[in-house]
Task: inverse folding
């Protein structure tokens, strides 16, 4: 059975040392949004009514690779497998190289079955 999902990605909450345009960050997230949906769909197969929000904190290194990725405390999704899958997916992404060093990003996602 194919599960439909709604995933909303909003603007990064903060950026640190270096700089990278928010639109560039959003573009990469949008390119990889199916990976996030796949994580959520796997969770829906176990818990069909699962819904909630999570925020991924990650660092984009000087070369554009993600050097760290973790889920902020306070996730209302409350599913460690989905949260781990999302964090791992983000860890594998490649962004344009930031100007002036690494960039710290907090990126929220909202999930609802649909």
Result:
């Amino acid at each position: 059975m194919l599960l439909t999902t709604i995933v909303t990605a909003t603007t990064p909450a903060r950026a640190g040392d270096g700089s990278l345009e928010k639109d560039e960050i959003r573009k990469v997230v949008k390119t990889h949004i199916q990976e996030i949906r796949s994580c959520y769909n796997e969770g829906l197969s176990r818990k069909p009514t699962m819904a909630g929000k999570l925020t991924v904190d990650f660092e984009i290194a000087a070369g554009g690779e993600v050097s760290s990725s973790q889920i902020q405390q306070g996730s209302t999704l409350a599913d460690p497998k989905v949260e781990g899958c999302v964090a791992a997916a983000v860890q594998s992404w490649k962004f344009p190289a930031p100007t002036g060093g690494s960039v710290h990003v907090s990126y929220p996602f909202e999930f609802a079955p649909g």
